[in-house]
């Protein structure tokens, strides 16, 4: 050792510095007087207060770290966020950080900076993530984006306490109270019970508001219905499995369900179901609490009778529709260190809690350990209306994205072209036989699966 | 001979009037070129380059990492949905343009017959649909067609008629998107035809009147022949715009129900941008080109023939 120029103390100091440097990703940013510029294109929140809260968090971080922030909120209305992503990926320039909707991380993975370091630290701190985020953003073992809090949403059932009790005999508040246990009737909350309730509410003139068009609200609840019946159209290997008993059963079920839905559900968009609930014409929809939030403002009598609770269960389990957003850093970003540091900061518990509070409970963090924020317990009226909006252990449910587990390159086409909703429409609206709908889907799926 | 050729006296360098004119013409063409250069650059940048880029994209695989030649085209040819989109695009564009032309023709004649004093007021009002941005007016139409709260259905209910599923059934949905396009585009035809009507010399009508022509005969043998070129050009222009329509279908039906209202642009958007297959989306959009080329060839050939006859 003698004569090599390194003392034991020097080696230890270097090792300690290295360990600290690797454990503190912010060191590059914090340690600098000027952290450069960072351009962000984040999702334009449905809830106006969501943007304000996000701006405050980001700007505070920028000031603290001497990073000049340029923050744009890009709306998903008219798919402007998709257009921005497509344009920036083609031009290979634009924002440093973008919010990526559900399927976009996979599509642009080659152009996204790996985020394993950030995800490793976050997982170490906050525990398990839901597997859907992994399916969508972990590609060939590498995370290409970080599951975002802002914009990520569940779409459980949002029902009318009074109407469901009166017409269907379901006490949804008792079944799923705002506490860590379930009540009587929860065990029997299945798609069969759901159909009986739908029939009763239809008879009473307040039918369930379930869209079956080509918009995401339709695709999401239908995806969970299919999964509950084990009706997988394409398996994880990419094999087409549409010719199955599960698919036949779910189509038969959907046909009976459609008979007691409003006749125009095949043309409903993402706002139609909200309007059905808010106007008092419907006893149940599948939606985030945004419908309740609008009702609180415009129809308080309706809002105080609303309650979020899990989707029904089928033979294959209970699945809550889930639609996550992601934060990603372009590989061509000029300030990747700061971009990653900011995303990590945004994903921390305090910031997640602030975003959930600002959005009235709308945003769903990806970590199971972050489903215990006060907001979901205290929001109302009625108090606890969104307590069961995040998936909780007592729900015995899984978050689910329609078309899972098909390879994402195929699933994105199935999802956006609403193949499951179209199968139902063929059977229930056009009067096709179940076999004919399955044959049609087989042809479409072969097309989606091409390389 | 060669000697003679070599020793031939050189012509004096006299500036002939022809040469000067030629140079002047050249200078004029240079000026004209410079004046049109901004437009040429715009066309190159916003039409030619995107078209060539779309051609390039159409030859790539889904991930845009590999050249696959014409595979995207052959794939589309094998898809029933694509052929449905072709049918719907043609149905949408041709029906809408024919109806727009008819309504525009009638409105132009009605306006032309009005006294000059009141004409301006009516002309202004009839142009309103055309000057409102279509994305906004289509949203208003969407409210009228709304599945659950349709204003039309509210009126129908008032007279005891069952509600119409405007956007929920293929036939009605196709009717609705065509109706909105007709509402939006008819004023364009009206104003073009009105301008054409005003350019027909009064002497022709006077001569026809002396010959004892009826109103129909004046329309058939005077007005219509004088308007044929403008009708052709207007129809062609409208066909191009209607074929490429996006906002009306996108806002009203999103291509549904069961893809029965998709046109090229909305289907290309769904496949390319929403479903992450940009090469296939580009391929879909390129199919507008040959179809429009066929229409353009037939229509422009007719215009040229008539121009030659008149010359």
Q: Could you explain how this protein is built, in words?
A:
The complex is a heterodimer of chains A (451) and B (311). Chain A has 451 residues and is α+β, with helices and mostly antiparallel strands. Chain A has two domains: 8-152 and 324-377, D-Maltodextrin-Binding Protein, domain 2 (3-Layer(aba) Sandwich); 153-323 and 386-448, 3-Layer(aba) Sandwich (D-Maltodextrin-Binding Protein, domain 2). Helices cover 45% and strands 12% of the residues of chain A. Chain A has helices at 8-23, 27-30, 48-65, 80-91, 104-107, 116-126, 131-137, 161-168, 172-175, 191-203, 216-228, 245-258, 272-278, 290-298, 300-303, 336-346, 349-358, 374-378, 408-416, 419-428, 434-448, and strands at residues 37-43, 68-74, 97-100, 138-139, 142-143, 146-147, 153-154, 157-160, 284-286, 306-309, 313-314, 317-323, 326-329, 398-400. Chain A has a five-stranded mixed sheet with strand order 2-1-3-13-6. In chain A, strands 7, 11, 12 and 14 form a four-stranded mixed sheet that branches. In chain A, strand 11 and strand 12 form a beta hairpin. In chain A, helix 3 packs antiparallel against helix 17. The N and C termini of chain A lie far apart (58 Å). Chain B has a single domain, classed as MetI-like fold, CATH 1.10.3720.10. Chain B contains 15 helices and no strands. Chain B is flat. Chain B is 77% helix and 0% strand. Chain B is mainly α and 311 residues long. Chain B has helices spanning 2-7, 17-57, 71-77, 80-113, 116-126, 128-131, 134-145, 151-158, 170-198, 202-210, 215-243, 247-252, 264-274, 278-286, 288-310. At the A-B interface, helix 4, helix 5, helix 13, helix 19 and helix 20 of A face helix 13 of B.
